[in-house]
Amino acid sequence: SEPAFDPDLFAGHLEPAKWQELSGDPLKPLTNRALQALYPPGSTIKPIFAAGALHDGVRSVGSSVTCTGAVSIYGHPYRCWLKGGHGHVSLIEAIEVSCDSFFYHLAHDAGLDALARWARTVGLGSMTGIELGAESSGLVPSDEWSRKARGHPWYGGETISVGIGQGPILVTPIQMAVAYAALVNGGSRVRPHLVEGQASPGVSIGYSADTLAAVRRGMELVVRGDRGTARRLGSLPIPFGGKTGTSQVIAKQEG
User: Fold this and answer.
1) Which residues pair with 70 in a beta bridge?
2) Whose C-alpha in 3, 80, 221, 239 is 20 to 30 A from the C-alpha of 90?
3) Residue 252 has pLDDT above 50, yes or no
């Protein structure tokens, strides 16, 4: 993986100059990105919010929107990634095609507190407890966090962005692995382990079998559906599902 370093450097005496070089590298090769790096989840958050919305009755499997390519909320246009829109989409289809418009409406109707609760239910915003230590807890935002960290209240428009995994919501890859495992294993949030025989009993997230089945179906269609955003993987000889996701990069240095 990149950025990399030679692990043999740590087998013997590490020269101070080399340590300074590694620890001062702006690419941070010593960071365990699976546990410590924080990323906006982008559209990978959508199955999590869909499951929470089904559980709380904010949406049903039959809920749908007509996506025209943009949604006007609070007088501001929020654009779907597909110019021209997806047309009529149900909840399951919204996962399949990753329709932003569906989740903009969902976020608006649910509100930030519900989105935050659904995220925390599957383990976002807290450390997973894996044995490696130095783990980041991520960020699931709230109005209280905004006032303390930024000095101003939470803005309603930010909730709409969080609905598609953008804005001030940050996760680690290991958190997302735990969250997705809970969605597909029958609703058990487990503590990940690297040591054989150290399995811990999972904690039920409390979602019904029907709720989890609907979300799994949407994730299967991501790969197997005619309009699935990962349909190119559908020819692989194993049954599986997934979810694509892209999050914005605010700034990137050339080179």
Assistant:
1) 79
2) 239
3) no
Q: What's the pLDDT band for 1 if we cut at 50, 70, 90? A: low
Q: What is the pLDDT of residues 150-197, one digit of tens each?
A: 999 999 999 999 999 999 999 999 999 999 999 999 999 999 998 877
What are the φ/ψ torsions at residue 229 (nearest 5 degrees)?
Answer: -70, -15
C-alpha separations of 5 from 18, 21, 30 in Å? 11, 11, 8
When pLDDT is averaged across residues 219-236 and rounded to a whole number, the result is: 97
Look-up: residue for tokens 């930010």?
158
Length of the chain: 255
In this prediction, residue 12 carries a pLDDT of 82
User: Which tokens belong to 203?
Assistant: 């904690």
CATH fold, domain 41-233, is: Beta-lactamase (3.40.710)
How many angstroms separate the Cα of 88 from the Cα of each of 63, 68, 230?
10, 9, 20
Tokens of 22: 């590694």
Domain borders along the chain are: 41-233
Q: Please check whether residue 119 is in contact with residue 140, taking contact to mean a CB–CB distance below 8 angstroms.
A: yes
Residue 2 one-letter amino acid: E
**The one-letter amino acid at 45:** I
Report, as residue numbers or ranges, the catalytic residues.
43
pTM for the whole structure: 0.92
Which of residues 46 and 252 earns the better pLDDT score? 46
